[in-house]
Amino acid sequence: MTDSTDTITYRSILRRDGVLITFIAATIGRLSYAMISLALLLTIQGATHSYAAAGASIGGYALISFFMPLKSRLIDRLGTKAVLPWLSLGFTLCVFAISGLAFENVDAAFPYIALAIGTGLFAPPLGPSMRAIWAAVTPEPAARRRAYSLDGVVEEALYAVGPLAVGGILLIAPSSLVTAITGAMNLIGTIFLVFSPTSRHNSMKSTTATASASSGWAGPFKRRGFVFLLLVLLGIGLGGGPLEVSLVARSEAVGQGPSVGYLFAALSIGSAVGGLLWGHYIREDRPRLHLAVLIAVSAAFGLMLVPTTNLIATACLLFCAGLASAPLLITAYVSSDGLVPEGEQREASTWVNTLNNIGVALGAATAGILIDRGGPALAFAAGAAMYVLTLIFVLIFGQLLSPRPVEQIPVSREGVGNERRAFPR
Fold it and tell me: 341, 211 in Cβ contact below 8 A?
């Protein structure tokens, strides 16, 4: 039984169908991702005494993670239990091997690079899997939006806490042990997620395999609206990608390099606050309008950052810009659910993240070139300009974000909450 719109709260959602235990398990597993990059960097550099080897390992890990959508498709077709535990086991074994090599003082670069690539290859899609569970237990649009808001805010917090956790453990243990701990966390979180009551009751294989199998190799890319949404996410990533690099350059330019951490914190806090407020107050799904407004806010504050050199003023602007950050992804996730059939939602959710990450990576790389040529102001301006172009794109073609007709939604009679999947958008 679901809550009415007026009584939907974060607490009531966490009490549904035992989802709190599942969410805690997913959070433990996802914390390993917030820690792994720094842990690997420190472990491999310490063992090989080479930043080149450490950088190549981290680059290989990050690059191969772009296969995450294909792993999500495999889960959609074969089921959660058949795929997630084995992926996590492979991830953990690779991480343990890296830790073991470092403990034995092996200084050759190649084994670390190869194992780091293996770590990225096996990394289980825990975020998309958790969002698939949220979708199953929150058939009402308002509840799902709030669930995604909570999920996004917690994920934002994890990536702030992860590096701090690595630093704290390093006070009492070597970096190789920190690396091993991240692998253990991933496996423990994944196992508890897969075998939690909520995950079992929602029968991920039986509710999604048929729809996914019938979608062909193109999967969600057969839907024009979904392709359009990914292009929007790419533009958003390109707009936000220059931000961190530009902030570092701006801080160093004014002689306040160490303060850049506070600027990043202001952005993250703004994003967390924005996500919570968005989930609490927004009650209707209007993806075209919501994306346009949020992108416009990002562009406006991005432009304000161009001439601003005072770091206190910069922090205030970053907090305000961050208010739109988490809601952008929340809107994208909700819109993605409305554009693809049920059996493709996990893969679609993964593509949303992937295209945004590609945009951020390209934007950051471009920012470095622009900063060398014209300083951080030029990079800030380029990011804001990309937001403006994306806004125009949404205003012109945003009607493609209209959700699929209700009658096209596959309705399953199995699993908690799935009998109400055909909700209006």
Answer: yes
Residues of the chain with confidence (pLDDT) below 70: 1-7, 200-218, 257-259, 404-425
pTM for this predicted structure: 0.80
Look up residue 242 and give its amino acid. P
Question: Rounded to whole angstroms, how far apart are CA atoms 424 and 359?
Answer: 31
For position 414, what pLDDT does the model report?
31
φ, ψ of residue 285 in degrees (nearest 5) = -95, 105
For helices 224-240 and 287-305, angle between their N-to-C axes, nearest 10 degrees = 20
Q: What is the 8-class DSSP label of residue 104?
A: T
Q: Which domains does the chain have, with CATH numbers?
A: 5-202 (1.20.1250.20), 219-411 (1.20.1250.20)
Using the Cα atoms of residue 132, residue 136, residue 139 and residue 142 in order, give the sign of their dihedral.
negative
Using DSSP's 3-state secondary structure scheme, residue 304 falls into helix
Rounded Cα distance between 166 and 58, Å, is 16
Q: Is 171 helix (H, G, I), strand (E, B) or coil?
A: coil
Compute the residue count for the chain. 425
Contact 338, 417 (CB under 8 A): no
Report the C-alpha gap between 57 and 37 in whole angstroms. 9
- DSSP classification of residue 414: S
* Alpha-carbon gap, residue 42 to 62, rounded angstroms: 16
Distance CA 189, CA 392 (A): 42
Q: Distance (Å, rounded) from C-alpha 360 to C-alpha 17?
A: 36
Give the separation between CA 135 and CA 384, rounded to whole angstroms: 33
Q: Closest Cα to residue 404, out of 322, 350, 338, 355? A: 338
- Predicted confidence (pLDDT) per residue in 140-155, tens digit: 888 888 899 999 889 8
Task: Please enumerate in sequence order all residues whose Cβ is within 8 A of that of 231, keeping only pairs 6 or more positions apart, or say none.
Answer: 355, 393
Q: Are 298 and 324 in contact (CB under 8 A)?
A: yes
Choose among 322, 401, 326: nearest CA to 356.
326
Phi and psi dihedrals of 8, rounded to 5?
A: -75, 115
The per-residue pLDDT for 250 is: 85
Q: Which helix (H) or strand (E) holds 280?
A: helix 260-281
SS3 22: helix
What is residue 415's predicted lDDT score, i.e. its pLDDT?
Answer: 31
